[in-house]
Structure formats: structure tokens, C-alpha cells
Design brief:
Blueprint: H1 41-52, H2 70-80, E1 90-94, E2 104-108, H3 112-136, H4 138-168
Antiparallel strand pairs: 1-2
């Protein structure tokens, strides 16, 4: 068997050990947490610039590998800006009855969006409960009967006028009944 030309490394030297006395503190409680984003100066500047643009239609897109501190950096910068004190308006998309494929955007003062939603849910619930009752009421049935009778009277009147005009011109109006035909024995 061939002998290796490499010297064997002892187990205690396979790993680096930090001398605790060289750190300069006794406990991590003595240390202050870092409150700045380290590195990424251009990214931080771009984010600050984007946050300073106070106009609709501007968006900020942040990309990077998972675990690189994107969210932490953004939260740190947001905490340090004055914009965090300005609460944005609530934005709601509602149905556009004229063009259902293009919902309408409503802007409400901050916090009013949830109240609006609760009120609309309550309103819809009220309609679901009460609309069927409206069609069952005596006044609705009476009104419906009047409308149907008026329409039938108007139809009869139009038909009589038409029959009169047809007979004056020498024609006859024949009404044919369409329906199931009875067949006799075969």
C-alpha cells in the first residue's frame, strides 16, 4: 500500500476556535444592535428616492436572493423616514356595472374602507332578507294584478283596432291555435 505524502491534520485543528477574551465584551447584552443597512448603498439610495416621490403611479420593486435581508432593510428604511407617519388612503375596487371587466377604484380616507365593506355587507344582507318579502306583500300583488290587467286591456284594444282596420280593407284575420294536437284512433 502506497503511503500518502500529505501530513495528517489533528482533529483539534480541523475547526477554528475563537478566543472569547479577544471579543472585548462579557455578554451580548452589552452590544448595541445595528440600525443601518450595511452595504447596498445604491439600493438604499434608490429606495429613499422612491419613497420621496409623492405621486400616484410610482412603485418600488425590490429583488434579491432569499435570506439576504431585503425585508429587514426595507423596514429599517421605512422606520427612518417621515412617510411612515402618513397613513395612505384606503383603496377599494367596486363593480363597474357599465363595464364589468373594468372595476372602479374608490379612494376613501384611511380606515374607512373596512367600515364601507361592513356597511355594504349589511346592506346586501338586508336586501336578501327583505326583497322576497316585498314580492309577497298584498300591495305588490295588488299592483301587479293592476299592471297585468292594464296590459291585457291594452292588448285587446290594439287587437280590436287591428281587426277593424283589416276588415275595412277586405281582409279577414284568422287566429290559429298552436298546441298539442289530439290524434284519433289509427
Amino acid at each position: 500500500m502506497k503511503k500518502s505524502s500529505f501530513e495528517e491534520v489533528p482533529i483539534d485543528k480541523l475547526r477554528w476556535h475563537c478566543d472569547e477574551k479577544s471579543l472585548g465584551f462579557e455578554s451580548t447584552e452589552e452590544l448595541k444592535a445595528c440600525t443601518q443597512v450595511i452595504g447596498q448603498r445604491r439600493g438604499v439610495d434608490a429606495l429613499r428616492l422612491g419613497l420621496d416621490i409623492d405621486s400616484p403611479g410610482y412603485n418600488i420593486f425590490v429583488s434579491g436572493l432569499v435570506g439576504t435581508g431585503r425585508k429587514t432593510a426595507i423596514n429599517c428604511i421605512l422606520d427612518s423616514t417621515e412617510r411612515i407617519n402618513k397613513v395612505p388612503d384606503d383603496k377599494l375596487y367596486v363593480n363597474n356595472f357599465k363595464n364589468p371587466d373594468s372595476p372602479r377604484l374608490l379612494g376613501l380616507p384611511a380606515g374607512q374602507g373596512r367600515k364601507f365593506k361592513r356597511n355594504m355587507d349589511s346592506f346586501v344582507e338586508h336586501l336578501v332578507k327583505n326583497i322576497p318579502k316585498a314580492f309577497e306583500s298584498e300591495s305588490y300583488k295588488r299592483k301587479r294584478k293592476e299592471v297585468v290587467e292594464n296590459l291585457n286591456n291594452r292588448r285587446r284594444e290594439l287587437l280590436q283596432n287591428f281587426e277593424k282596420e283589416v276588415s275595412q280593407k277586405g281582409f279577414a284575420l284568422i287566429q290559429v291555435e298552436i298546441g298539442p294536437f289530439l290524434q284519433g284512433p289509427q
